[in-house]
Amino acid sequence: MEYTLSQEELFLRQEISAFAKTELPQDWIGFGVLEEYGDDKAWELSQYIVKKLALKGWLAMAWPKKYGGSEASPMEQAIYREEMAYWRVPGIDVGPAGIPIVGPTLMTFGTEEQKQEHLPKIASGEETWTLLYSEPNSGSDLASIQCHAMENNDHFTIYGEKIWVTGGNRCDWCMLAAQTTPDAPRHEGISLLLVNLKYKGLRVKPLTSLTGYQENTQIFLDGVQVPKSNLIGEKNRGWYYIMVALDFERTFGIGFVGCARRMLDELVNYTREEERNVGTLGKPSTIRSSLAEMAIECEVARLLCYRVAWMQEKGIVPNYEVSMAKNLSAEMCQRVANVGMQIIGPYSQLRPGSKWAQIQGVITRNYLYTVTHTIYMGTSEINRNIIALRGLGLPRG
Hints:
397 residues, 13% strand, three-stranded mixed beta sheet
């Protein structure tokens, strides 16, 4: 089996590295989604980068040209996301959902009018998108959502509330899941709607996360009227569309690999320097063993993600395979951050900006941020159920 990347793929990786070094500030240590949606200056920078990426044709590189893409291969898309995550380049998704979730969902189930209206704008960075799925009492059990959309003549009227909406205070549009036939069986009465976040009757409340940023929001919908033309696909088929959309989303677990690779490189360099100058990191053999284990996990996770891209290139629809790649990548990224906290010791509690913070505080930031990695895109527990049922053929119960 040949694992070597093609010359074109290697060139793309080099081009992305050059872009990051040219466009980002010289002292760049990066920031994640947390700062991107919770800090005004970070948001401005991410929108600047979005426009640059759009001009290069990278934002939606794997999309068809007629919708603003470059028709790049799935492997090129995976390389792009991995390298962008490695260099901590902001703004790569046009909102948390535009490129990885909303766009592919519209291409698969949307009307031609919806595709023409939104896809070019997403690909150019003109429209930013988020998701309105979770509710205060509905997370992994998404079929239990209470938000409902009543059909009235030429529109739906929506009542309910959504929570953990990343970028709800920044984005232009969202893809919303609502009950449209409340008395139907749990999975058979849900529909997906395109909702402008400026519609009348919609209120956004910022939420402060454990990182101290307000990147997440709670959204209240009190009689929000949405045209019927904003319905995705068929009424009451939303559960099926959401399951497909989650598979689209999970293919981007390669971003966790890029994040982990960068942390691992930083920790290796830090350990070399501190072992020479201070020698206060604990037993060298223990540290070597921990970092070597993380290097192994990084490479295994990377290959699982590349396998998903390979399947897509061959026209094979990955299913449980994306759950395997997502789970290993997300949990591995958490472990790298955890190992980093142990290596740095008490200094690991200092955030970026402190004069005593080690590695500029980025390990601390990632340690807090990676808590979410095993929750969104489907929790690790849900993904293990998928692997067991669909991959191993085990019975329910």
